[in-house]
Amino acid sequence: MHENEIGKLLVDSALKVHRILGPGLLESVYDVALAHELRTRGCSVQRQVAFPIVYEGLVFDEGFRADLVINSLVVVELKSVEKNLPVHAKQVLTYLRLSNLRPGFLLNFGMPYLRDGIERIVNGLTDKPLAS
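Structure (tokenized):
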């Protein structure tokens, strides 16, 4: 399954979970429910995946834990807060850089409408405008 197909499946699954459970529960509830929903749709899902970091040639196992990794391709960070903050997207981008993965999603289940809490973040995109 291609990364973009996984992204569409992820968003559809997250919307279903949010519609059924509603906003404001603990992140761990959405974590387990979303993982279950994705598995029923044929995805391989790992929860709380530890990624080591390398710093000056040393490997530290305490790098970070991704909430979900889908098909070993897509990193998902779950939140259940009042609103997304810029630091949340930066966190996902850092996870992507450290894991050498390209696409990631920030899903904030604390929002009244999940569509307002979905951010797709891609590792390796530049902020430069496209040439005309």
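Helices lie at 3-21, 27-40, 86-99. DSSP finds three helices and five strands in the chain.
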